[in-house]
Amino acid sequence: MALKHALEAAGAVFLDEDDLGAGVRLRFTSRDVKQLRRLEGEGGAVGEDDV
Fold it and tell me: What is the pLDDT of residue 51?
């Protein structure tokens, strides 16, 4: 149980078992979310592919 608490304090989120099985995910910090939103908004409109 101490290991689980230490991992949760570091940002791990433990998921209950469902149809896809149990799992662990790393939670994003608010700083990470802001950076991701900024990066996703860069580049302008998507154009047609010439390939």
Answer: 67
Token digits of residue 14 = 């433990």
Q: Which residues pair with 24 in a beta bridge?
A: 14
2, containing H or E segment: helix 2-9
What are the domain boundaries of the chain?
2-40
Short-list 20, 24, 40, 43, CA closest to 32: 40
What are residue 15's phi and psi, to 5 degrees?
Answer: -100, 135
Measure the CA–CA gap between 46 and 31, rounded to whole angstroms.
26
Low-confidence ranges of the chain (pLDDT < 50): none
Query: Can you give the pTM of this predicted structure?
Result: 0.46
What is the maximum span of the chain, computed from C-alpha positions, in angstroms? 55
